[in-house]
Amino acid sequence: MALGLVRRIAVEVRRDLEAAELRDPAARDASRVLILFTWPGVHALLMHRVAHALRGAGVPALPHLIAHFARRRTGIEIHPSAVIGRGLLIDHGSGVVIGETAEIGDDVTLYQGVTLGGTGFSQGKRHPTVGNGVVIGSGAKLLGPITVGDGAKIGANSVVIHNVPARSTVVGNPGHPVRVEGKRPTGPDADWAHLPDPVADAMDALSARIAELERQIERLGGTPAPGDEPGGEARASLRARGSGPSPAGG
């Protein structure tokens, strides 16, 4: 059994090294040995692979001690119970947090400051599930038991609290899809994640209203009096109050 665990860890670490070689531009001139000894993301993954295997074997305490040492050594915090597929690249890595019930597929890329976190104090599944080939940008926060589909991209500093469609690009706070299958989402079927942007909607509505009012003014053939334009009565009242003596005196 121990030999099988060692072989499995060796295969997983080999894939992690290949991921760094292929997807990290800084590794283009680095040997695999240099990556193994100097890449903090690889160090964190190596220690997690060992801690996860020990936890699965029922070893008490030691997996958490290894995870604690890994966090102190690399700035990357991965709970021993987190399930991580092959070929994960943690680029730079400082500040990355991967929670207890998080699941990560194969060939995923995480940049610095990414959080796969939970919400509240509920038990059970409370962290994200990330599909294969996903790229998550710097500072992005994925919270709760959401699912990120295969091939999705999460923009830097996005806050994602709902499921993400496969092969989509999500940005913003709250995160919303701006690309699906390489195209901008349009129409009612595009709102898979149910994440409207109320600020943008309000700005669009105000812009449309102002444009309509300007067209109405032009049709009337002149500039309205101060009290006649939209909001004019309030502005005229303010001007009238402002024309009196200053309440500060002088």
How is this structure best described in words?
It is a single chain. By secondary structure, the chain is an alpha/beta fold. It folds into two domains: 2-190, Hexapeptide repeat proteins (UDP N-Acetylglucosamine Acyltransferase, domain 1), CATH 2.160.10.10; 198-240. 37% of the residues lie in helices and 15% in strands. The chain contains six helices and 15 strands. The chain has helices at 2-23, 32-38, 40-56, 62-74, 198-220, 232-242, and strands spanning 77-78, 83-84, 89-90, 97-98, 103-104, 109-110, 115-117, 129-130, 135-136, 141-143, 147-148, 153-154, 159-160, 168-171, 176-180. A six-stranded mixed beta sheet has the order 3-6-9-12-14-15. Strands 1-4-7-10-13 form a five-stranded parallel beta sheet. Strands 2-5-8-11 form a four-stranded parallel beta sheet, with no helix packed on it. A hairpin with a 4-residue loop joins strand 14 and strand 15. Helix 3 packs antiparallel against helix 4. It starts with a helix and ends in an 8-residue tail after the last helix.
Distinct helical segment count: 6
Q: Which geometry do the CA atoms define?
A: elongated
What is CATH's topology name of the largest domain?
A: UDP N-Acetylglucosamine Acyltransferase, domain 1
- Summing up helix and strand content along with how strands pair, one would put the structural category as alpha/beta
Strand content: 5-15%
Task: Note the main sheet.
Answer: 6 strands, mixed
CATH class of the largest domain: Mainly Beta
pLDDT averaged residue by residue = 82
Q: How large is the radius of gyration?
A: 27 Å
CATH superfamily label of the largest domain: Hexapeptide repeat proteins
Secondary-structure element pattern, one letter each:
HHHHEEEEEEEEEEEEEEEHH
Total E-strand runs: 15
Strand order of the largest sheet: 3-6-9-12-14-15
Please mark out the parts with pLDDT under 50 across 5 or more consecutive residues, or reply none. Answer: 187-196, 246-250
Distance between the termini: 91 Å
Helix content: 25-40%
When the domains are counted, the total is: 2
CATH architectural label of the largest domain: 3 Solenoid
